[in-house]
Design goal:
The chain is an alpha/beta fold. 30% of the residues lie in helices and 23% in strands.
Protein backbone atom coordinates (compact mmCIF):
# COMPACT_ATOMS: atom_id res chain seq x y z
CA UNK A 1 0.00 0.00 0.00
CA UNK A 2 1.47 3.37 -1.01
CA UNK A 3 0.96 6.72 0.74
CA UNK A 4 -2.00 7.82 -1.39
CA UNK A 5 -3.81 4.49 -1.07
CA UNK A 6 -3.19 4.43 2.68
CA UNK A 7 -4.63 7.93 3.16
CA UNK A 8 -7.67 7.03 1.06
CA UNK A 9 -8.24 3.78 2.93
CA UNK A 10 -7.78 5.17 6.42
CA UNK A 11 -9.00 8.71 6.05
CA UNK A 12 -5.65 9.99 7.33
CA UNK A 13 -4.90 13.36 5.78
CA UNK A 14 -2.05 14.51 8.01
CA UNK A 15 1.53 14.59 6.89
CA UNK A 16 3.42 11.53 8.08
CA UNK A 17 7.13 10.88 8.13
CA UNK A 18 8.13 8.13 5.65
CA UNK A 19 9.00 5.70 8.44
CA UNK A 20 5.63 6.23 10.10
CA UNK A 21 3.85 5.70 6.79
CA UNK A 22 5.77 2.45 6.32
CA UNK A 23 4.84 1.25 9.81
CA UNK A 24 1.19 2.24 9.41
CA UNK A 25 0.93 0.52 6.03
CA UNK A 26 2.60 -2.59 7.41
CA UNK A 27 -0.05 -2.74 10.12
CA UNK A 28 -2.67 -3.17 7.39
CA UNK A 29 -0.83 -5.99 5.66
CA UNK A 30 -2.36 -9.43 6.19
CA UNK A 31 -0.48 -12.00 8.25
CA UNK A 32 1.71 -14.12 5.98
CA UNK A 33 1.81 -17.91 6.28
CA UNK A 34 4.18 -19.87 4.05
CA UNK A 35 3.56 -23.55 3.31
CA UNK A 36 6.18 -25.77 1.70
CA UNK A 37 5.60 -29.37 0.68
CA UNK A 38 7.91 -32.16 -0.37
CA UNK A 39 9.72 -35.30 0.70
CA UNK A 40 13.02 -33.48 1.36
CA UNK A 41 12.38 -32.11 4.84
CA UNK A 42 15.49 -29.94 4.94
CA UNK A 43 14.60 -28.36 1.61
CA UNK A 44 10.98 -27.61 2.48
CA UNK A 45 12.00 -26.13 5.83
CA UNK A 46 14.40 -23.77 4.07
CA UNK A 47 11.79 -22.85 1.47
CA UNK A 48 9.23 -22.01 4.15
CA UNK A 49 11.74 -19.84 6.03
CA UNK A 50 12.82 -18.05 2.85
CA UNK A 51 9.20 -17.34 1.92
CA UNK A 52 8.73 -15.27 5.08
CA UNK A 53 11.88 -13.26 4.53
CA UNK A 54 14.76 -15.67 5.22
CA UNK A 55 16.54 -16.30 8.50
CA UNK A 56 18.71 -13.18 8.16
CA UNK A 57 15.54 -11.16 8.67
CA UNK A 58 15.35 -12.52 12.21
CA UNK A 59 18.89 -13.51 13.24
CA UNK A 60 21.75 -11.01 13.18
CA UNK A 61 25.48 -11.74 13.51
CA UNK A 62 26.39 -12.41 17.14
CA UNK A 63 22.86 -13.25 18.27
CA UNK A 64 22.05 -15.93 20.81
CA UNK A 65 19.09 -17.87 19.44
CA UNK A 66 16.70 -20.28 21.13
CA UNK A 67 15.16 -22.90 18.87
CA UNK A 68 12.30 -24.45 20.83
CA UNK A 69 11.02 -27.73 19.38
CA UNK A 70 8.76 -30.27 21.01
CA UNK A 71 11.02 -32.93 22.58
CA UNK A 72 8.48 -33.80 25.26
CA UNK A 73 7.95 -37.50 24.65
CA UNK A 74 9.93 -40.72 24.63
CA UNK A 75 8.91 -41.48 21.06
CA UNK A 76 10.77 -42.06 17.80
CA UNK A 77 10.39 -39.47 15.06
CA UNK A 78 7.96 -41.41 12.87
CA UNK A 79 5.33 -41.42 15.67
CA UNK A 80 4.82 -37.63 15.34
CA UNK A 81 4.88 -36.86 19.07
CA UNK A 82 7.99 -34.67 18.73
CA UNK A 83 9.29 -32.22 16.15
CA UNK A 84 11.09 -34.00 13.32
CA UNK A 85 14.88 -33.92 13.87
CA UNK A 86 15.58 -32.88 10.26
CA UNK A 87 13.29 -29.86 10.62
CA UNK A 88 15.04 -28.87 13.87
CA UNK A 89 18.51 -29.37 12.40
CA UNK A 90 17.68 -27.28 9.33
CA UNK A 91 16.33 -24.41 11.43
CA UNK A 92 19.52 -24.51 13.51
CA UNK A 93 21.69 -24.56 10.37
CA UNK A 94 19.86 -21.53 9.01
CA UNK A 95 20.43 -19.66 12.29
CA UNK A 96 24.14 -20.39 12.15
CA UNK A 97 24.34 -19.39 8.49
CA UNK A 98 22.70 -16.07 9.42
CA UNK A 99 25.51 -15.43 11.93
CA UNK A 100 24.16 -16.68 15.25
CA UNK A 101 26.88 -16.88 17.90
CA UNK A 102 25.08 -19.66 19.73
CA UNK A 103 21.92 -21.67 19.14
CA UNK A 104 20.29 -23.27 22.18
CA UNK A 105 17.80 -26.13 21.80
CA UNK A 106 15.81 -27.42 24.77
CA UNK A 107 12.40 -28.48 26.09
CA UNK A 108 10.90 -29.16 29.50
CA UNK A 109 9.92 -32.75 28.72
CA UNK A 110 7.01 -34.79 30.05
CA UNK A 111 8.72 -38.19 29.87
CA UNK A 112 12.29 -38.84 31.11
CA UNK A 113 14.38 -36.08 29.53
CA UNK A 114 17.38 -38.27 28.69
CA UNK A 115 15.23 -40.73 26.78
CA UNK A 116 13.24 -37.96 25.08
CA UNK A 117 16.34 -36.19 23.80
CA UNK A 118 17.84 -39.41 22.46
CA UNK A 119 14.78 -41.24 21.11
CA UNK A 120 13.31 -38.15 19.45
CA UNK A 121 16.43 -38.10 17.28
CA UNK A 122 16.97 -34.41 17.99
CA UNK A 123 20.02 -34.75 20.22
CA UNK A 124 21.72 -37.00 17.68
CA UNK A 125 20.85 -34.71 14.76
CA UNK A 126 22.57 -31.75 16.45
CA UNK A 127 25.57 -33.63 17.85
CA UNK A 128 28.91 -32.13 16.88
CA UNK A 129 27.49 -28.90 15.42
CA UNK A 130 29.72 -26.00 16.42
CA UNK A 131 27.95 -23.23 18.30
CA UNK A 132 24.97 -25.44 19.11
CA UNK A 133 23.89 -26.37 22.62
CA UNK A 134 21.30 -29.12 23.03
CA UNK A 135 20.98 -29.82 26.72
CA UNK A 136 18.31 -30.90 29.13
CA UNK A 137 16.51 -28.34 31.25
CA UNK A 138 18.31 -27.21 34.40
CA UNK A 139 15.58 -26.62 36.96
CA UNK A 140 17.56 -23.96 38.82
CA UNK A 141 17.34 -21.77 35.71
CA UNK A 142 13.61 -21.22 36.03
CA UNK A 143 12.75 -17.82 37.44
CA UNK A 144 9.47 -16.38 38.61
CA UNK A 145 8.17 -13.81 36.12
CA UNK A 146 5.35 -11.32 36.59
CA UNK A 147 2.80 -11.88 33.83
CA UNK A 148 -0.20 -9.92 35.11
CA UNK A 149 -2.30 -12.16 32.88
CA UNK A 150 -6.00 -12.86 32.98
CA UNK A 151 -5.38 -16.19 34.71
CA UNK A 152 -1.67 -16.36 35.52
CA UNK A 153 -0.38 -13.40 37.50
CA UNK A 154 3.12 -14.91 37.66
CA UNK A 155 4.87 -18.10 36.65
CA UNK A 156 8.29 -19.72 36.50
CA UNK A 157 9.80 -19.40 33.03
CA UNK A 158 13.13 -20.65 31.71
CA UNK A 159 15.66 -17.85 31.80
CA UNK A 160 17.51 -18.93 28.64
CA UNK A 161 14.32 -18.45 26.65
CA UNK A 162 13.83 -15.01 28.17
CA UNK A 163 17.39 -13.78 27.64
CA UNK A 164 17.89 -14.92 24.03
CA UNK A 165 18.06 -12.34 21.25
CA UNK A 166 15.79 -14.45 19.07
CA UNK A 167 13.16 -17.04 20.03
CA UNK A 168 12.11 -19.48 17.31
CA UNK A 169 9.13 -21.72 17.98
CA UNK A 170 9.28 -25.13 16.21
CA UNK A 171 6.34 -27.32 17.29
CA UNK A 172 4.99 -30.47 15.70
CA UNK A 173 1.34 -30.42 14.64
CA UNK A 174 -0.64 -33.01 16.57
CA UNK A 175 -3.81 -34.01 18.34
CA UNK A 176 -4.21 -33.26 22.04
CA UNK A 177 -6.74 -34.92 24.31
CA UNK A 178 -7.55 -31.74 26.23
CA UNK A 179 -6.95 -28.83 23.87
CA UNK A 180 -7.91 -30.76 20.67
CA UNK A 181 -4.63 -29.73 19.03
CA UNK A 182 -1.19 -28.68 20.15
CA UNK A 183 0.61 -26.30 17.80
CA UNK A 184 2.69 -23.13 18.18
CA UNK A 185 0.83 -21.44 21.02
CA UNK A 186 0.83 -24.53 23.21
CA UNK A 187 4.50 -25.26 22.55
CA UNK A 188 5.34 -22.49 25.02
CA UNK A 189 4.63 -24.97 27.81
CA UNK A 190 8.14 -26.30 27.19
CA UNK A 191 9.68 -23.20 28.77
CA UNK A 192 7.33 -23.25 31.77
CA UNK A 193 8.39 -24.67 35.12
CA UNK A 194 6.42 -25.25 38.28
CA UNK A 195 3.35 -27.48 38.51
CA UNK A 196 2.23 -27.19 34.92
CA UNK A 197 -0.85 -29.30 35.56
CA UNK A 198 -2.35 -26.27 37.32
CA UNK A 199 -2.78 -24.33 34.09
CA UNK A 200 -5.14 -26.99 32.73
CA UNK A 201 -7.79 -25.41 34.95
CA UNK A 202 -7.96 -22.60 32.40
CA UNK A 203 -5.58 -23.76 29.69
CA UNK A 204 -6.44 -21.46 26.80
CA UNK A 205 -6.28 -18.28 28.88
CA UNK A 206 -3.11 -19.39 30.69
CA UNK A 207 -1.32 -20.06 27.41
CA UNK A 208 -2.41 -16.69 26.07
CA UNK A 209 -0.96 -15.12 29.22
CA UNK A 210 2.44 -16.72 28.63
CA UNK A 211 2.47 -16.10 24.87
CA UNK A 212 1.73 -12.44 25.52
CA UNK A 213 4.95 -12.28 27.53
CA UNK A 214 7.19 -14.57 25.44
CA UNK A 215 6.61 -13.75 21.79
CA UNK A 216 8.03 -15.94 19.07
CA UNK A 217 9.99 -14.05 16.42
CA UNK A 218 9.29 -16.91 14.02
CA UNK A 219 7.06 -19.97 14.23
CA UNK A 220 7.83 -23.01 12.10
CA UNK A 221 5.27 -25.80 12.39
CA UNK A 222 6.41 -29.30 11.52
CA UNK A 223 3.58 -30.99 9.63
CA UNK A 224 5.79 -33.47 7.84
CA UNK A 225 3.67 -36.07 9.61
CA UNK A 226 0.87 -35.26 12.02
CA UNK A 227 -0.58 -37.16 14.95
CA UNK A 228 -4.32 -37.37 14.35
CA UNK A 229 -5.43 -39.14 17.55
CA UNK A 230 -4.28 -40.18 21.04
CA UNK A 231 -2.10 -37.11 21.45
CA UNK A 232 -0.05 -35.58 22.77
CA UNK A 233 1.99 -38.72 23.40
CA UNK A 234 0.69 -41.06 20.72
CA UNK A 235 2.55 -44.28 20.18
CA UNK A 236 0.58 -45.94 17.39
CA UNK A 237 1.75 -45.48 13.81
CA UNK A 238 -1.87 -45.93 12.69
CA UNK A 239 -2.61 -42.50 14.20
CA UNK A 240 0.05 -40.80 12.06
CA UNK A 241 -0.69 -39.13 8.73
CA UNK A 242 2.20 -38.16 6.46
CA UNK A 243 1.66 -34.70 4.92
CA UNK A 244 5.25 -33.66 4.06
CA UNK A 245 4.52 -30.01 4.92
CA UNK A 246 6.30 -27.27 6.85
CA UNK A 247 4.53 -24.03 7.79
CA UNK A 248 6.26 -20.75 8.68
CA UNK A 249 4.98 -17.39 9.91
CA UNK A 250 5.92 -14.49 12.15
CA UNK A 251 2.34 -14.70 13.45
CA UNK A 252 1.95 -17.76 15.68
CA UNK A 253 -1.83 -17.41 15.80
CA UNK A 254 -2.03 -17.34 12.00
CA UNK A 255 0.32 -20.33 11.70
CA UNK A 256 -1.83 -22.27 14.17
CA UNK A 257 -5.01 -21.21 12.40
CA UNK A 258 -3.80 -22.58 9.08
CA UNK A 259 -2.38 -25.75 10.64
CA UNK A 260 -5.76 -26.44 12.22
CA UNK A 261 -7.23 -26.98 8.74
CA UNK A 262 -4.86 -29.92 8.22
CA UNK A 263 -6.96 -31.80 10.79
CA UNK A 264 -10.29 -30.90 9.17
CA UNK A 265 -11.00 -28.35 11.90
CA UNK A 266 -11.58 -24.59 11.96
CA UNK A 267 -9.47 -22.11 13.97
CA UNK A 268 -12.56 -21.31 16.05
CA UNK A 269 -12.63 -24.94 17.19
CA UNK A 270 -9.40 -24.45 19.12
CA UNK A 271 -9.87 -22.50 22.36
CA UNK A 272 -6.19 -21.59 22.67
CA UNK A 273 -6.23 -20.00 19.21
CA UNK A 274 -9.38 -18.05 20.03
CA UNK A 275 -7.99 -16.81 23.36
CA UNK A 276 -4.75 -15.60 21.74
CA UNK A 277 -6.67 -13.90 18.93
CA UNK A 278 -8.95 -12.11 21.39
CA UNK A 279 -5.81 -10.97 23.24
CA UNK A 280 -4.53 -9.36 20.04
CA UNK A 281 -1.61 -11.77 19.67
CA UNK A 282 -2.29 -12.53 16.01
CA UNK A 283 -4.82 -13.23 13.28
CA UNK A 284 -7.04 -16.32 13.24
CA UNK A 285 -9.46 -15.41 10.44
CA UNK A 286 -8.34 -17.39 7.42
CA UNK A 287 -9.86 -14.81 5.07
CA UNK A 288 -7.43 -12.23 6.48
CA UNK A 289 -4.35 -14.45 6.29
CA UNK A 290 -2.18 -14.50 3.17
CA UNK A 291 -1.14 -18.11 2.53
CA UNK A 292 1.67 -18.62 0.02
CA UNK A 293 3.11 -21.82 -1.38
CA UNK A 294 6.86 -21.88 -0.88
Amino acid sequence: MDRRTFIKATGTAVLLAPTLIKEACAAHEPSLVAVAEGADYAAITRRAINAVGGMKKFVKPGDVVVVKPNIGWDRSSELAANTHPLVVKTVVEECLAAGAKKVKVFDNTCNDSRRCYVNSGIEGALKGMKGVECKQIETERFKKVTLNGQFLKEWELYDEALSANVYINVPVAKHHGLSKLTLGLKNVMGIMGGSRGFIHRNLDVALADVNAHVKSHLTIIDATRILTAHGPQGGNIADVKVLNKVIASTDTVAADAFATTLFGLKPSDIAVTVAAYKRGLGEMNLSKIKVVTA
